[in-house]
Amino acid sequence: MDKEALLSEQVGDLYNKLSWLNRLKLADQLKGMNPSEVHLIEAIEKFPELNMTGLAEHFYLTKGAVSKIVRKLVKKEMITGYHKPANKKEIFFKLTAKGRRVFAIHERLDQEFRDRDRVVYDEVSDADFQKLLHFVELYNQHLDREIEKQRQSEIK
């Protein structure tokens, strides 16, 4: 197996294992919420300057897909939309008290999962970790360029 296929397989396996390990606790603590809703809540809290278009770009989803999740979250009273005084056209979002509770639970669980896995990070040297981060940054930059190419070809 070539190195690219091996890496792809290993990253996929890692993601699947993390999802499996975390799923029960997430489902128990965030009852009635699906991952897309939780991640949108997280993005609204962390990136309040994102409107519908910005959220769609952030998640690499269509505006229609984000709009559907937004409607569900509004119905669940997790978020509310608002206009900025200088911008009456675009709708921005903020968390309600219910949404802030979901965000806090998610943050606490993320920290718990990082603490669980710290044993692995502690075994990796700083130099090796920096090399890994450098690779991930290079790969992300490559994927960003490919996404932009695809978006440009879809416009034409």
What is the share of helical residues?
Answer: over 70%
| Helix run count | 6
Strand content range: 5-15%
Structural class: mainly alpha
Number of domains: 1
Compute the separation of the termini in Å.
Answer: 38 Å
State the strand order across the main sheet.
1-2
Shape: globular
Low-confidence stretches: none
Count of β-strands: 2
Largest sheet: 2 strands, antiparallel
H/E topology pattern: HHHHEEHH
Assigned CATH superfamily: Winged helix-like DNA-binding domain superfamily/Winged helix DNA-binding domain
Describe this entry's structure for a reader:
The structure is a single chain. A two-stranded antiparallel ribbon has the order 1-2. The model has no long low-confidence stretch (mean pLDDT about 95). The chain is mainly alpha-helical and about 160 residues long. The longest helix is centred in the C-terminal third of the chain and has 30 residues, at about 125-155. About 75% of the residues lie in helices and about 10% in strands. It is globular, with a radius of gyration of 19 Å. It has six helices and two strands. Helix 1 (about 5-30) packs across helix 5 (about 95-125) and helix 2 (about 35-45) crosses helix 5 (about 95-125). A hairpin with a 2-residue loop joins strand 1 (about 80-85) and strand 2. It has one domain (about 5-125): Arc Repressor Mutant, subunit A (Orthogonal Bundle).
